[in-house]
UniProtKB/TrEMBL annotation:
<dbReference type="InterPro" id="IPR003439">
    <property type="entry name" value="ABC_transporter-like_ATP-bd"/>
</dbReference>
<dbReference type="GO" id="GO:0005524">
    <property type="term" value="F:ATP binding"/>
</dbReference>
<keyword id="KW-0547">Nucleotide-binding</keyword>
<dbReference type="InterPro" id="IPR003593">
    <property type="entry name" value="AAA+_ATPase"/>
</dbReference>
<dbReference type="Pfam" id="PF00005">
    <property type="entry name" value="ABC_tran"/>
</dbReference>
<dbReference type="InterPro" id="IPR017871">
    <property type="entry name" value="ABC_transporter-like_CS"/>
</dbReference>
<feature type="domain" description="ABC transporter">
    <location>
        <begin position="16"/>
        <end position="248"/>
    </location>
</feature>
<dbReference type="GO" id="GO:0016887">
    <property type="term" value="F:ATP hydrolysis activity"/>
</dbReference>
<keyword id="KW-0813">Transport</keyword>
<keyword id="KW-0067">ATP-binding</keyword>
<dbReference type="InterPro" id="IPR027417">
    <property type="entry name" value="P-loop_NTPase"/>
</dbReference>
<protein>
    <submittedName>
        <fullName>Iron complex transport system ATP-binding protein</fullName>
    </submittedName>
</protein>
Length: 268
């Protein structure tokens, strides 16, 4: 198990409170007066069907989409009232479309995570290099360091973007489908890594079984509101899955993990 102490020598984790948030995409109200909380150090999943509002909600936390009503609070402070530097030192995001173009190497992409700690024209320090190396090692991407980012596979890019977020040393990680494009081994490795970090994590996931194993709590989104919330054992029921996803299922306790395990049933 890889040590995270070089990145988080002093443990810190932020609280997150979303209070009555409404969000629109154009004229469409995507999120409706939604409230949720994430305690310091928790790993919490947002799950729900496509179009339920997961990505839109996350955008309000990493300050791409300002709420029409309500507030996003990090450690009790309005996230939108923080300076750009302070917000970037506290919150790191891994998004589905990173928009990275050009001939940047993997090392240069990961080094972007150190930007909130630098003044204009500051170069990289020995400490920065240590953090970069640690972050790449944690996501099993050290061998990609000198490769052009745009030449990587989808799964390799995803791991590099997670490494970039880690170099920010955030107290709150916001991840939109962090297992996207990853093979099974790296899905398990990345989610296990999030569990070991002393930071708080809120992540949108499609895989209910992975969420059940690795997350402390879950919120189920449907049509822009919270349809269910609680521990995986409380949330993952055949009735909820039928109502929200429109499919039949069986839910049992896995004999090894102790987590609920969902088996989806084909339509008769």
């Amino acid at each position: 198990m890889k040590d995270t102490s070089a990145l988080y020598g002093t443990a810190r984790a932020s609280s997150l409170d979303i209070e009555g948030v409404t969000l629109r995409a154009g004229a469409v109200r995507v999120i409706r007066e939604l409230s949720l909380t994430v305690a310091p150090g928790e790993v919490v999943a947002l799950v729900g069907p496509n179009g339920s509002g997961k990505s839109t909600l996350l955008r309000s936390i990493y300050r791409v989409l300002r709420p029409d009503t309500g507030q996003v609070r990090v450690d009790g402070r309005d996230a939108w009232g923080l300076s750009a530097r302070e917000h970037a030192r506290t919150v790191a995001a891994v998004v589905q479309d990173a928009g990275i173009e050009g001939d940047l190497t993997v090392r240069e992409v990961v080094a972007m995570g150190r930007t909130p700690y630098k003044r204009l024209l500051d170069g990289d320090t020995a400490e920065d290099e240590t953090l970069l190396a640690q972050a790449l090692s944690l996501v099993s991407a050290s061998h990609l360091r000198d490769r052009p980012f745009t030449h990587l596979s989808g799964g390799e890019r995803q791991r590099v973007l997670i490494a970039r977020a880690l170099t920010q040393q955030p107290a709150l990680l916001v991840l939109d489908e962090p297992t996207n494009h990853l093979d099974i081994r790296h899905q398990l490795d990345i989610l296990a890594l999030l569990r070991r970090l002393p930071a708080t994590a809120l992540l949108a996931l499609h895989d209910l079984n992975l969420a059940a194993v690795f997350c402390d709590r879950m919120y189920v989104l449907a049509d822009g509101h919270i349809a269910a919330g609680g521990t995986p054992a409380d949330v993952l029921t055949p009735a909820m899955i039928s109502e929200v996803y429109g499919v039949a299922s069986e839910v049992a306790v896995h004999p090894r993990t102790g987590a609920p395990q969902v088996t989806f049933l084909p339509a008769e």
